[in-house]
Amino acid sequence: MMLKPHSTRTRTATQGFSLLEIVIALAVIAMIVGVVAVRSGGVINKGRTTRVITLCDTLKKASAQYHADTNQMPWEYQGYAADNRKLSGTQSIAGWQGPYMESPLTTAMNPTGGGIHMYAVANVNGSAGFDTDGDGTNDVTGAGCTLWMSGIPQTDAQAIDAAFDRGIAGNWYDTGRVKWSSSNNYCWVLVYF
Predict the structure, then answer these.
(1) How many Cβ atoms from other residues are within 10 Å of residue 18's Cβ?
(2) Residue 3 within a domain
(3) Distance separating alpha carbons of residues 177 and 164, to the nearest angstrom
């Protein structure tokens, strides 16, 4: 008498995966994507902040040289003709030895793609000046090169503020060299004074 081998169920190529196995695999993939997205968000914010810090450093150096050469504060308006781009456009002012920047300001220099200008005064576009020491009084209200950017979210503005104003007393959004308005997402940075 011949014994039949005990039949065991084996998966064949035509059976596929069960619904439960597919759901588990999708859940694992979703968790991995979520972790990567959260971690890369911090990198993106850090990159935006670094771009603004680098731009402010460039504007500070260019403004200082322009001021030393001409004894005037410069301004640089994104999208305007050369007479409103004192750092990147050719000027006929006495002492001018520029251009002081390789290229004019563009919306690409704003980390969110919004408007961007540098004014020759500290009190512009809703800013009454800067309380640079955190004592509650605006210390810089007249001449001073102020970078203005629109469309800056709070997280980016706080990171920019932390880079420039660490340790200054008062609210992060209205003391020091960086100011931010929650009503319109404007950010101002006092670049040179």
Answers:
(1) 9
(2) no
(3) 7
pLDDT in tens, 115-149: 999 999 999 888 889 999 999 999 999 999 999 99
User: Sign of the CA dihedral 46, 48, 49, 54?
Assistant: positive
In a domain, 7, yes or no: no
Tell me the C-alpha to C-alpha distance, in Å, between residue 99 and each of 11, 79, 92, 146: 74, 17, 11, 19
Written as six digits, the tokens of 176 are 């020091």
Total structural domains within the chain: 1
One-letter identity of residue 21: E
pLDDT at res. 43 = 47
What is the sign, positive or negative, of the torsion defined by CA atoms of 128, 133, 139, 140? negative
- Please count the residues of the chain: 193
Cα separation of 58 and 143, whole Å? Answer: 19
* Number of other CB atoms surrounding residue 104 within 10 Å: 19
Domain of 148, in residue numbers: 19-192
Rounded-to-10 torsion of CA 53, 55, 60, 61: 120
Q: Which of 14-28, 77-91, 107-121 has the lowest mean pLDDT?
A: 14-28
Burial string for 64-98 (b: 16+ CB within 10 Å, else e) reads eebbebbeebbbbbbeeeeeebbbbbebeeeebeb
- What does the pLDDT look like over 26-67, one tens digit per residue? 777 767 666 665 554 444 466 778 899 999 999 999 999 999
- 6 secondary structure, DSSP code: P
**Going by DSSP bridges, is the β-strand pair 186-192/143-149 parallel, antiparallel, or unpaired?**
antiparallel
